[in-house]
Amino acid sequence: MSTPVIETEEHRALRASVAALGKRYGREYFARVVAEGKHTDELWAEAAKLGYLGVNLPEEYGGGGGGIAELSIVLEELGAAGCPLLMLVVSPAICGTVIARFGTEEQKRAWLPGLADGSRKMAFGITEPDAGSNSHRITTTARRDAATGEWVLNGRKVFISGVDIADATLIVGRTEDARTGKLKACLFIVPRDAPGFGRSRISMELGAPEKQFELTLDDVRLPADALVGEEDAGLLQLFAGLNPERIMTAAFALGMGRYAVERAVDYARTRQVWKAPIGAHQAIAHPLAQVHIELELARLMMQKAAHLYDAGDDTGAGEAANMAKYAAAEAAVRAVDQAVHTLGGNGLTHEYGLASLITAARVARIAPVSREMILNYVSHQSLGLPKSY
Q1: Torsion of CA 303, 88, 255, 296, to 10 degrees
Q2: What's the DSSP call for residue 63?
Q3: pTM reported for the whole predicted model
């Protein structure tokens, strides 16, 4: 399958318009929101009004009719302006995609218009304290109550983003009869006020508008129609959400890396210690050129992954999405490190706003799946090497 490496005119126009929106808000807005413990409500609302939040969702439910390729552009450009919206990864990309592909007509009508216009948000709950990156060890269970037909969920989740601002959380569980070592993933829409559904905030060193939570599900009762898709569909439905998550994480990392490099380049053009700006020295110029190249290469893999996913090639998209997430995360970490190093002591000051990215950049290496698990995936699935576990 051919993969376009040059974006369409529509894609370039989308980039330009989202970049203009991001420029109106920028890093100062983002830093102020974080410092005040607030959320990026103003940016979210304007992005919604302009149609960016639901650009990947079906037109018949209020979306833009595009795909992950378009939504990744939105997140990357906002990140490059210094004001990324992490909930874009979760709400329209993961939850919106899963519901659009596998939800019932009633679920689509209930959720997709709100996800598209920004009036509703949905969180995504998969990670568990004892499972880490191994989704096959998920212990959250769901059983049917034979008398009522309801689902009863029990379990714990950890590091779940934005639960406090989400109307519901799409919870990944497994049916009780699947406790055989094989994952039989089932997805459930759990309203935020469901009895037995508790949350506690996790204190993080990372400064971000979106907060992290540990969730508890204690005999949470849900109606039969809370199940998204088929009970026996398993990994197909799960990875319908996880592949977009990896692609969008790549976009998040790319935007961050581009922002850091742009700040460093601006500084290197004007900072003068000897007779010429420091950017004239190869010791400064070459490392910045190198990280720029790495970011561009990672973007190509992200574009390939998005193209394969939007074309319906789930298998090809799985490989490419993991590679894109890995490449973008590594490039972003190196880009941020080099940007801070270029500014020297100024790179650690509040004035230039780069030091906070040192921590933020590592998120893309760790979440939603560690780089080591991606290397496991590539060694097993792409290279055919035996498993070590």
Answers
A1: -10
A2: S
A3: 0.94
Question: Which tokens in the block code for residue 366?
Answer: 């760790």
Class of residue 1 by CB neighbours under 10 A (exposed 0-12, middle 13-18, buried 19+): exposed
Reading the block at residue 82, the tokens are 């210094």
Q: What is the spatial distance between Cα 215 and Cα 191, in angstroms, rounded to a whole number?
A: 13
Is pLDDT of 258 > 90? yes
Question: Measured between alpha carbons, how far is 88 from 204 in angstroms, rounded to an integer?
Answer: 20
Per the listing, tokens 């807005």 go with 29
Structure tokens at 170: 């799409």
Residue 389, both tokens: 């576990």
Q: Give the residue among 162, 253, 262 at the shortest CA–CA distance from 204.
A: 162
Q: Which range among 4-13, 21-30, 90-99, 127-136 shows the weakest confidence by mean pLDDT?
A: 127-136
Query: Which tokens is 54 given?
Result: 């639901």
Contact assessment for residue 256 and residue 84, using Cβ atoms and an 8 Å cutoff: yes
Percentage of the chain beyond pLDDT 70 is: 94
User: Mean pLDDT across the stretch 45-58?
Assistant: 97
CA distance 176 to 333: 41
**Pairing verdict, β 185-191 and 141-144:** unpaired
The pLDDT of residue 178: 45
Distance CA 344, CA 350 (A): 13
The backbone torsions φ and ψ at residue 163, rounded to the nearest 5 degrees and listed phi first, read -60, -35
Tokens of 137: 């060890």
pLDDT for 140-199, tens place per residue? 999 999 999 999 999 999 999 999 999 999 999 987 654 455 557 789 999 999 999 999
Report, in angstroms and rounded to the nearest whole number, the Rg of the chain calculated over CA atoms: 21
Please give the sequence-ordered ranges of beta strands (E in DSSP) within 162-234, or none if there are none: 168-175, 185-191, 197-202, 212-222, 227-228
What is the dihedral sign for C-alpha 195, 197, 201, 206? negative
CB 158 within 8 A of CB 172: no
In one-letter notation, the amino acid at residue 72 is S
The secondary structure of 108-143 as a DSSP string is: HHHHHHHHHHTS--EEEE---TTTTT-GGG---EEE
The identity of residue 190, as a single letter, is V
Residue 7: exposure state from Cβ atoms within 10 A (0-12, 13-18, ≥19): middle
